[in-house]
């Protein structure tokens, strides 16, 4: 008979996010039931119950996103930096020495110095450059407009 593998325990932040999501879902379901019963009874409680239900749906979606994000963060923490598998970059127990080369970080990038713009066409002596790149050429002396 094959032995069953034990599942790892979820990290604390993931478990608290799941508990928060279940509480929010329970709040939403209570709001749905109260809204349905108060609509059958034509009670004034229908409006607050619908508002509570809307807030509960929003809160439940928020909590579900929190679960997804906290699971991703926990999985990233289990892996090493820049690795795809949980055990990549790990060392054998008791091994000493520098960390693996994949843990080294790149040197800081040097800031780029701005270069002066290069003219696209050679300028004629005495001609003014256009007011902006690709703009209309300046008017010639003595030219008339209609």
Describe this structure in words.
- By secondary structure, the protein is mostly helical.
- It has a domain at 12-79.
- Helix content is 42%, strand content 0%.
- It contains 2 helices and no strands.
- Helix 1 (12-40) runs antiparallel to helix 2 (46-78).
- The chain is elongated.
- The model has no long low-confidence stretch (mean pLDDT 76).
Looking at this protein, list some descriptive labels.
transmembrane helix; membrane; 146 residues; 42% helix
Fold blueprint:
Blueprint: H1 12-40, H2 46-78
Helix pairs in contact: 1-2
Q: What percentage of residues falls in helices of 4 or more residues?
A: 40-55%
Low-pLDDT runs of 5+ residues are none
Radius of gyration: 33 Å
Oligomer: single chain
Largest sheet data: none
Terminal CA distance reads: 98 Å
Helices and strands, in order, run as: HH
Shape: elongated
Provide the structure class: mainly alpha
Beta-strand content estimate: under 5%
Compute the average pLDDT. Answer: 76
How many individual helices?
A: 2
Tell how many strands the DSSP assignment holds: 0
Keywords: Membrane, Transmembrane, Transmembrane helix
Biased composition (Low complexity): 83-95, 137-146
Transmembrane segments: 21-41, 47-69
Region (Disordered): 75-146
